[in-house]
Amino acid sequence: MNHMNNIKKYYEDNYKEGYPDYYIQGWENKTAQEMRFKELVGQINLTNKRILDVGCGTGNLLEYINQRYIGFDYTGVDILPHMINIAQGKKLKGRFICMDLFKNNPFRSNSFDAIFSSGIFNLNLGNNKEFLMDALDVFQELSRGVISFNLLWDKSPDREDKYFYFDPDKVGHLLTEKYGMYWTVTILKGYLNNDFTVLLKKKQIS
């Protein structure tokens, strides 16, 4: 994976001590962040499940899940040390690891029931479609049940050059073409005017 330095620089520049988590992570406000979380996890029962949160930031998704589910096993990974330090400082029930999953993956195949990723595909890296597909190759190897992530919508009314926007119909077609034999692909949209969620569920092959 290339361009990790660009991602690090963006979030390091965004970091300001004392600012709310959503600002540090590049979201417009807490309400929008939680609306994304609702779509990300809302179709899935996470009780007693093993969860991997890729690009976990300061642990906000775990805080959201904690309010709604019990008995799950959570691991969050992020490439930014200051994000992981903040997350660990919250003393939440979960593991936070500073690492680049796409460069050094320490997990075995089918280690997790659900993989979530919120926001890691948003920055315009110059190769976002390639990054997305490479990441999904890793995710589908690690997940034995569900993959859920969000993307910025190309119909967003407030587009900025520093971000990358996807066409949900094209994404759905591309993922169905590549992964459709073993995964169902669902596109969730309408909850925000600049964002959509992609949900992949592994098919039960008899």
TrEMBL record:
Xref: CDD domains: AdoMet_MTases (cd02440)
Keywords annotated in UniProt: Methyltransferase, Transferase
Domain Methyltransferase: residue ranges: 51-124
Biological process according to GO: methylation
Keyword Transferase carried by entry: yes
GO molecular function per UniProt: polyprenyldihydroxybenzoate methyltransferase activity
Keyword Methyltransferase: yes
Record-linked SUPFAM superfamilies: S-adenosyl-L-methionine-dependent methyltransferases (SSF53335)
Cited InterPro entries: Methyltransf_25 (IPR041698), SAM-dependent_MTases_sf (IPR029063)
Protein name, as recorded: Type 11 methyltransferase
